[in-house]
Design a protein that fits this description.
The complex is a heterodimer of chains A (204) and B (394). Chain A is α+β, with helices and mostly antiparallel strands and 204 residues long. Chain A has 7 helices and 7 strands. Chain A has a domain of 142 residues: Alpha-D-Glucose-1,6-Bisphosphate, Chain A, domain 4 (2-Layer Sandwich), CATH 3.30.530.20. In chain A, helix 1 crosses helix 2. Helices cover 30% and strands 19% of the residues of chain B. Chain B is built from 15 helices and 15 strands. In chain B, strands 3, 4, 5, 6, 7, 14 and 15 form a 7-stranded mixed β-sheet that branches. A 6-stranded parallel β-sheet of chain B has the order 10-9-8-11-12-13, sandwiched between helices. A two-stranded antiparallel ribbon of chain B has the order 1-2. In chain B, strand 9, helix 8 and strand 10 form a beta-alpha-beta unit. Chain B is globular. Classes of the chains: A alpha+beta (204), B alpha/beta (394).
Chain lengths: 204, 394
C-alpha cells in the first residue's frame, strides 16, 4: 500500500483517490510512454486523498473467471450493490449508473472502465456527474483450496454546493457496512444460491 | 401458529404468531412433532445472552414433518420426517465443505452483529438471539428451515421421535465434547455438569474408550443418573473438587477435563461470586468458575474441552496454568451435520438410548411451567420434550 501510494506521488500526479493500490498499480504498468497515463490521471474522478474510501474483501468458493464474468457485465452490479438502481451499458467501456439518492431522488452519472484484465481486475471511474467516484474489483486465487479472493475498493468525493451534505451521505447509514453487507450477500448467492434471511429483522 | 415467545428476563409465554412462509427457493416448512428445551435456552431465559429481543421465538432442538418446500429444494419433500440441526449450514462455503458447519460463512443474516461480537460470524442458529441469526425457533407448531437440502436429515420410519430428537443438538454436542478431548483407552475423564449434555458426554467418553469418568455436579438426582451410566461422582457442595480429583487419580489428575456447564456456573468460591456480580451488572457476560477449575484440576499435558456455552469475555483466565502445564483447550459450537449419520447408526445399533435423558413430555402450552421447572431443578427435571400437537395426538 505505502509503496504504491508513493509510486502515485512519484508519477507527479494527484491521482484518483481510489488510486491507492490497485488503480495506481494498473496505471503505472500501463504507461507505455504515450502519455496516456498522464492524461488519464489528469482526468481523475476523485482527487487523491479527498474522498471517502472503502476497501472490503471476501473469499468466495467460486472460480475467478466466473466472478470476473459476473462483474464485467456491469448491468449485474445493482444486483450486488444495494445503493445502485441500475447500470446501463453504453459501449464496451462506457456505462450510465443510477443510484438511489437522498429523498428518493435518483442520481445518475456516466462511468468508464479504466482497467480490464480478464479474470483478474476491473476498475472504473465516473466521468463528470455530481458525485465523482471510482472503484475497482480484483480477483485472486486464495491460498490452498479456498476459492477466490474478491477485493473491492470504492471511493467517492463529497460534492460541493447545496446538495453537498446530503450527497456526502449518499449511501445512508454506514457506507462501509453497506458495502460489506452487499458483498456478503453476493458471496452467499454465489456459494449457496441465496443470501440468508430470517423473516424477522432481515426480510429480503 | 402457537410458539414459545420471550417477553423479558424470566418471562415467556405461548403466543400466536403468523405461520412461517417460504421466503427463498431453498427453504422448507416443518410441522414440529417434538421439540426440547435446552440448557442453553435457560441462558437466554435468564437474560444472559446479548441481542435476544422481546417477541423472539425460542427453540433449537426440534423435528417434524416437512409440509412445504421451495422450488430449489431437491433432497427432501413434503411428507418427509426430518430432524434439523440447531446450527444452520449453507452446505457450500469452505467451512461447510470441510465439516465445520457451525462455522458456516453464509447462514447468519445478521453476520455484522456476530462480526462485532466475535470478529468473524459463525453459523446462524434457530431461536438463539439476533446476533446468531434472528431465526424464529422450533418451540412452535411450524418452523421455516433455511437451506433445507443441507439441513433436513430424514429420520428412519421405525425410529421414534424420542430416539431421534437429540441428534439435533445435545447428543452430537456431548459426542463432540468427548471426541475433541482426544480420549485414548485408559484415560480418566472429568466431566463438569451432569445435565443432558453432560449425560451424553459421559456416555460418549466411555464409547470412545475412557477407562474412568468422574462426573461433577451438585444436584443429587443428576449425580445419581451419572452413576447409573458407570461414572464416579463428586458433589462439589460436599467435597473439594480439585483435591478429590487429585487423590482419586493418585496424583496424576484427570487426563481430560470437559466443561459441560458454561457461563452460568454455580459456586460460592470467591471468583464465582465476583463473576456473578459483574454478570448481573452486565460488566461481564460469563461466570467462569468451571473453566478455571477445570484448567487447575486437569493433569499435566491434558486437554480441556469446552462444549458449555460462553457468550463473551471472562476475567482472571489462568493462562499461566495453560502454558506451564502444557494444556490444550478445544471448544466450539457443535458441527452437528458431521456427526448425525454416525450417531444415528449408533442409536439404531442399540449402543445408546437417547430417550432415557427425557424426564418430562408436555404439551407446548406448558412451556412456561416447564422452563421454570428446568431452571429451578425441581421434580427431578432433566430434559423436557414439548409436543406442539399433543391435543390432536391424544
Amino acid at each position: 500500500m505505502n509503496a504504491s501510494r508513493s509510486l502515485t506521488f512519484l508519477t507527479g500526479i494527484a491521482l484518483l483517490g481510489l488510486g491507492g493500490s490497485l488503480i495506481a498499480r494498473s496505471l503505472a504498468s500501463d504507461d507505455d510512454g504515450s502519455g496516456e497515463t498522464a492524461e488519464r490521471n489528469s482526468n481523475a474522478s476523485v482527487p487523491y486523498g479527498s474522498g471517502t474510501r472503502i476497501e472490503k474483501a471476501f473469499t468466495i468458493e467460486c472460480p475467478a473467471d466466473e466472478l470476473y464474468a459476473y462483474w464485467r457485465d456491469l448491468a449485474n452490479l445493482p444486483g450486488i450493490m444495494s445503493h445502485l438502481e441500475r447500470v446501463e451499458v453504453i459501449d464496451d467501456l462506457r456505462s450510465l449508473w443510477t443510484a438511489k439518492g437522498p429523498a428518493n431522488v435518483p442520481v445518475s452519472w456516466e462511468a468508464e472502465i479504466i482497467d480490464d484484465t480478464p479474470g483478474e481486475r476491473i476498475a472504473w471511474r465516473s466521468v463528470g456527474g455530481i458525485v465523482p467516484n471510482a472503484g475497482s474489483v480484483m480477483f485472486a486465487q486464495a491460498p490452498g483450496d479456498r476459492g477466490t479472493e474478491l477485493h473491492v475498493e470504492m471511493e467517492w468525493a463529497p460534492p460541493g454546493g447545496a446538495l453537498g451534505k446530503s450527497f456526502a451521505n449518499l449511501f445512508g447509514g454506514d457506507p462501509g457496512l453497506i458495502v460489506e453487507t452487499d458483498l456478503r450477500r453476493f458471496k452467499a448467492t454465489m456459494e449457496a444460491g441465496y443470501p440468508a434471511i430470517n423473516g424477522t429483522d432481515v426480510k429480503s | 401458529m402457537r410458539a414459545v415467545t420471550y417477553h423479558g428476563t424470566g418471562k415467556i409465554s405461548v403466543d400466536n404468531h403468523p405461520d412461517p412462509q417460504i421466503l427463498t427457493p431453498y427453504d422448507a416448512i416443518v410441522r414440529v412433532t417434538s421439540t426440547a428445551i435446552c440448557g442453553s435456552d435457560l441462558h437466554m431465559y435468564s437474560g444472559y445472552i446479548p441481542t435476544v429481543q422481546k417477541g423472539d421465538v425460542f427453540g433449537h432442538e426440534f423435528m417434524g414433518e416437512i409440509v412445504e418446500t421451495g422450488s430449489e429444494v431437491k433432497k427432501v419433500a413434503a411428507g418427509d420426517r426430518v430432524l434439523v440441526p440447531f446450527t444452520i449450514a449453507c452446505g457450500n462455503c469452505n467451512h461447510c465443505r470441510n465439516g465445520m458447519t457451525s462455522l458456516c460463512d453464509n447462514s447468519n443474516p445478521n453476520a455484522w452483529m456476530a462480526d462485532m461480537l466475535l470478529g468473524y460470524t459463525c453459523s446462524g442458529l434457530y431461536g438463539y438471539s439476533h446476533a446468531f441469526g434472528g431465526y424464529p425457533g422450533g418451540q412452535a407448531e411450524y418452523v421455516r428451515i433455511a437451506y433445507a437440502d443441507a439441513n433436513a436429515f430424514k429420520v428412519p420410519d421405525d425410529l421414534p421421535d424420542e430416539q431421534a430428537l437429540f441428534l439435533t443438538d445435545i447428543f452430537p454436542t456431548g459426542w463432540q465434547a468427548a471426541e475433541q478431548a482426544d480420549i485414548a483407552p485408559g484415560d480418566t475423564v472429568a466431566v463438569w455438569g451432569c445435565g443432558p449434555v453432560g449425560w451424553f458426554t459421559i456416555q460418549s467418553a466411555f464409547l470412545l474408550g475412557a477407562e474412568r469418568v468422574i462426573a461433577i455436579d451438585r444436584i443429587p438426582y443428576r449425580l445419581e443418573r451419572a452413576r447409573a451410566l458407570g461414572a464416579d461422582t463428586i458433589n462439589f457442595e460436599e467435597d473439594d473438587v480439585v483435591e478429590t480429583l487429585k487423590t482419586t487419580t493418585a496424583g496424576r489428575g484427570p487426563d481430560r477435563a470437559i466443561d459441560c456447564v458454561g457461563m452460568e456456573a454455580h459456586s460460592f468460591a470467591p471468583d464465582n461470586v465476583a463473576d456473578k456480580v459483574k454478570q448481573t451488572l452486565k460488566l461481564q457476560f460469563d461466570r467462569a468458575h468451571v473453566i478455571r477449575q477445570a484448567i487447575y484440576a486437569v493433569g499435566k499435558g491434558g486437554v480441556v474441552s469446552v462444549p458449555g456455552v460462553y457468550a463473551g469475555f471472562i476475567d482472571k483466565f489462568p493462562m499461566g496454568i495453560v502454558v506451564n502445564k502444557g494444556l490444550t483447550i478445544r471448544s466450539g459450537q457443535t458441527h452437528v451435520h458431521k456427526h448425525v449419520p454416525k450417531l444415528l447408526e449408533m442409536i439404531q445399533d442399540g449402543r445408546i438410548d437417547p430417550s432415557k435423558v427425557i424426564s418430562h413430555v408436555l404439551p407446548l402450552e406448558s412451556a412456561p411451567e416447564a422452563y421454570k421447572m428446568f431452571v429451578d431443578k425441581v421434580d427431578n427435571c432433566e430434559k423436557v420434550v414439548l409436543k406442539p400437537f399433543a391435543a390432536q395426538a391424544a
